[in-house]
Amino acid sequence: MSVTVNSVIKGSPAYKAGVRPGDILISIDGNEITDVLDYRFYQNNSRLTLVYINSAGKEKTARVKKEEYAELGLEFETYLMDKKHSCLNKCIFCFIDQLPKGLRETLYFKDDDSRLSFLFGNYITLTNLTEHEIDRIINMHISPVNISVHTTNPELRVKMMSNKNAGKVLGLLDRFNSAGIKLNCQMVLVPGYNDGAELERTLSDLTALENAECIAAVPVGITGHREGLAELKPFDKEGAQAVLEIIDRFGEKCLEKYGSRRVYAADEFYILAQKELPEARHYEEFLQLENGVGLVPLLLSEALPAIDETEILLGEKRTISIATGEAAYPFITQIVDKLIKKWDNLECRVYAIKNNFFGGEITVAGLVTATDIFEQLKGENLGSELLIPSVMLRDGGDMFLDSVTLEELSQKLDVKITPVNNDGYELVEKILGKEEF
Fold first, then answer.
1. Are residues 316 and 250 part of one domain?
2. Is residue 30 located within the same domain as residue 127?
3. How far is residue 155's CA from residue 389's CA, in Å, rounded to a whole number?
């Protein structure tokens, strides 16, 4: 397979070598280029030999000199240089299958692409890896690989993922581990399926892998749109407590064996179990923040000291509001209460937005829509500014899951809306309306 060059940056090493838009890149230093991983890996050397076909259909060879790791300067039609690899599974807990109808088309696409795992931290199930891709991961030493394991019981994995190959590919865990590839493993836990004894089995298998550096459990998310899907139940208080007992036990074993805890539960489990969240240091390198593992402890560990450290003077009274998900509400309120105690001319009201759009048991901030924010905040005195977590918005920060833009919601509520990253210092800064940190 070869790839067509969409554009060439003027003055770049490739441009100087004679490569032009429309040319077809065949190989770099004799290595076939099929997609972005090949291109980014093989372009790093300071001296390169490119083979390409020009617009006249002639095969050409170009020798390039550049700084090591400097970009060649080629750009392609898509970032991956071909289409995303879609998921081949039909998992009983798949969140995309639980989306309501009428959302933008891109939200219904299920990716399961090893390249996205390496480039952007996406999680893959291993079920659609070709032998070429497996060899490439090992030969290029692409690490870490983020894997949605769910269970190491082959029969149960087939059942939960509705894919006959889901059990067979578990052997890749040992293969990658033996090759020294670091593994970040995720488990979506479903009551009655892969919790309890099955969770113990999975953790026993995964913690035996020297290079499984982070293993995290998240509770199944259940929306109100499961028509025609398997009947699942959410975790209750007792079920969440049982999961935490197993997670903590295996975490302690890893701490003793490896000097690292390695095994963690998502913040949601502690909230469901009505247990106090661990301190931020419990999470070490925070390797699975994107799965909600340690998000709240990290936020608190930054915001609360930031309040103590800053001596900002507000001057005139400041009145603002914050909208967040139900799960995060008590923790945001804790931060705001401390701020108000220190600055008596600050008025900040926190709103817990109930997720009526998705329904079910969805309480996380990242799935709150503009529709629910508007319906629940219209007519409220929101002050001069409404802060929202930036995770409510798609990449680019301009649109909610229900395809309402930030600007549209701001106009409907007649208030300035400011997204805030999961950063305690930034949150304090935005609440106070000052730049201090």
1. no
2. no
3. 40
Residues contacting residue 115 through CB under 8 Å, at least 6 positions apart:
35, 36, 37, 80, 85
- pLDDT of res. 396: 75
The backbone torsions φ and ψ at residue 222, rounded to the nearest 5 degrees and listed phi first, read -120, 115
Cα 58 to its chain centre, rounded Å, is 44
The answer to whether the Cα torsion of 322, 327, 330, 332 is positive or negative is negative
- The amino acid at residue 154 is P
Q: How far apart are the first and last CA of the chain?
A: 50
- Whether residues 168 and 288 share a domain: the answer is yes
Of 251, 269, 292, which closes a domain?
292
Looking at the structure, tell me whether residues 370 and 306 fall in a common domain. yes
* CATH number reported for the structural domain that contains residue 228 in this entry: 3.20.20
Contacts of 222 (CB under 8 A, 6+ apart): 98, 232, 233, 234, 360, 361, 362
**Neighbouring C-beta atoms of residue 50, cutoff 10 Å:** 25
User: Where residue 14 sits, what CATH number does that domain have?
Assistant: 2.30.42.10
The Cα–Cα gap between 146 and 288 comes to: 10
CATH of the domain at 337: 3.40.50
Return d(Cα 168, Cα 231) in angstroms, integer. Answer: 26
- Per-residue pLDDT of 298-354, as tens digits, reads 999 999 999 999 887 777 899 999 999 999 999 999 999 999 999 989 999 999 999
Let me know: does 325 contact 363? Beta carbons within 8 Å. yes
- Please tell me whether residues 103 and 162 are part of one structural domain: yes
DSSP code of 283? G
Q: What is the pLDDT of residues 193-223, one digit of tens each?
A: 999 999 999 999 999 999 999 999 999 999 9
For residue 437, being part of any structural domain is answered with no
- Helix extents (H) in 13-130: 13-16, 36-42, 114-120
C-alpha closest to that of 252 among 187, 291, 290, 203: 203
The tokens for 162 are 């509705």
User: How far is the C-alpha of 109 from the C-alpha of 113, rounded, in Å?
Assistant: 12
Domain that holds residue 16: 3-76
